Amino acid sequence: MFFSFPFEEQEINFPSKMKDLCGEELSNEVFKLLKQLHLHLEQEVNFLPKEAGLNLLEAAPENDKSMSAKQRDAQVEDLWSLTKFFGFNTETFVLAVNLLDRFLAKMKVQPKHLSCIGICCFNIAARVVEKECNIPSTHDIIRISQCKCTISDLTRMEKIISEKLMFQFKAITALTFLHLYHAVALSHTSERKEILNLEKLEAQLKACHCRLVFSKAKPSVLALSLLTLEIESLKSLDLFEIAQRVQQYSKIDDKELFYWRELVSKCLADYSSPECCKPNLKKLVWIVSRRTAQNLHSSYYSVPELPTIPEGAWDESESEDSCEDMSCEESE
User: Fold this and answer.
1) Which of 54, 60, 118, 139 could form a disulfide with 75 if both were Cys (CB 3.0 to 4.6 A apart)?
2) Exposed e or buried b for every residue in 34-47, given b needs 16+ CB within 10 A?
3) What spans are recorded as compositionally biased (Acidic residues) (predicted)?
């Protein structure tokens, strides 16, 4: 992990005998969790995409000249597939989506450049989150993602993204709060960890990220919406009381929470339906030749053997995402 937080921890004047969420004196563990929560609540707005830019995406028609919400959602689903294919952490996917949305909300982007931008954000996120030994080469990412761009294209686009986002890569996201809320809940209840399943909550968060509308939600509110819906399904009174206290501590308005809970609930219901197209790995598999498969890291998903693709089969000069016209204008 080679990037540090773009902000430093600030001193917080907690009372010497601060009470925890249940009115008891804080343990060291809970004190640290609440201190983290306090800091993240203060800083989360710094990593939100510009709402005006997101509104433009939502209103944009689907054509070759303007980026639409549907095109963005499709790109995020591709990033989810890549995350699964390489066995990366959920944090990598969530961070890649955050970088992508912040860039798209700031810049006017042509649809033909979207795949290049998406892969750049994925690459940056992987370098921030994953161990260096687990990160594939840029060449492998290009081939497996079927992104029609060159390594040079990615390098130049990554420079643009880095500058426009002011190199603020390690963001506070809904996943940050989901982990914190989950840890706080477990520290206040004797319920088994399996009951409040973090993996399930992470999967639900990934489904929400495939819809542009959830990029407008504050990360803390989106995370609490997921948590409270899960607690509601578990019918746990203890967890419900803890969630209420977390909401009070986080100063999240009832109306705001209810609004996003409704949207999250609908999204998860839609995603669970058989009609919903979910990200899959099949379209990532056919592009891998025998030689590439042999060179891939052992943690990658296994792929069927295919005839080796000749070196000259693809003319990189014909890249649709060639940076010769990679001009991005800032959104007004």
Assistant:
1) 118
2) bebbebbbebbeeb
3) 313-332
What is the reported pTM? 0.78
Structure tokens at 264: 């999250």
The DSSP annotation for 250-294 comes to HT--HHHHHHHHHHHHHHHHHHHSTTS----SHHHHTT--HHHHH
Answer positive or negative: Cα dihedral of 75, 210, 85, 290: negative
Query: Could you tell me which CATH class the domain 28-46+172-272 is placed in?
Result: mainly alpha
Task: Return left, alpha or beta for 145; rule: phi > 0 is left, psi -120 to 50 is alpha, else beta.
Answer: alpha
What's the Cα-to-Cα distance from 175 to each of 14, 46, 193, rounded to whole Å?
25, 16, 18
Same fold, 28-46+172-272 and 47-170+280-330: yes
| Beta strands in the chain, from DSSP E residues, in sequence order | 107-108, 329-330
- What CATH topology corresponds to 47-170+280-330? Cyclin A; domain 1 (1.10.472)
* Per-domain boundaries in the chain: 28-46+172-272, 47-170+280-330
159 with 123: CB under 8 angstroms?
A: no
- Crossing angle, helix 90-104 and helix 151-164, to 10 degrees? 70
Query: 60 CB contacts (<8 Å, ≥6 apart)?
Result: 66, 67, 68, 69
26-39 tens-digit pLDDT? 577 778 888 999 99
Tokens of 92: 């990598």
- Give 73-83 pLDDT, tens digit per residue: 999 999 999 99
